[in-house]
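# nightly structure sweep
# worker-07 picked up a monomer target from the shared queue
# config: single-sequence mode, recycle default, output format = structure tokens
# input follows
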Amino acid sequence: MLIADLYKINEDTVRDGVQTTSITLNADSEVFKGHFPNNPVTPGVCMLQIIKELTEKRAGCSLFMKKVSNVKFMAVINPDETPDLIIINDFTDTQDEIKVKNTFTYGDTVALKVVVTFVKL
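# output follows
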């Protein structure tokens, strides 16, 4: 984990090329003290890092983020109010790359939709 104690994985399953992961954000993480004081917001770059880490776990290898497209931040993720998230990664693998269609949700709210292409290292 690049950012120590940012989140913990509660459950992680993969079925038919789709990884569904339940995580809980740590509202006491240093990230939220600076982004932003008294009004914590999960940075987009942290969400992309979580996607990368979950994809590396599933792939069993290190990855390089080659391309990010169709990025739609649809709701703010405040770790004090909505620390429990569901992350869905729908994978398309080739020999050298992994393309991930991702969604971050809490409750009935979609917070992020993005497509990320990784290169296997």
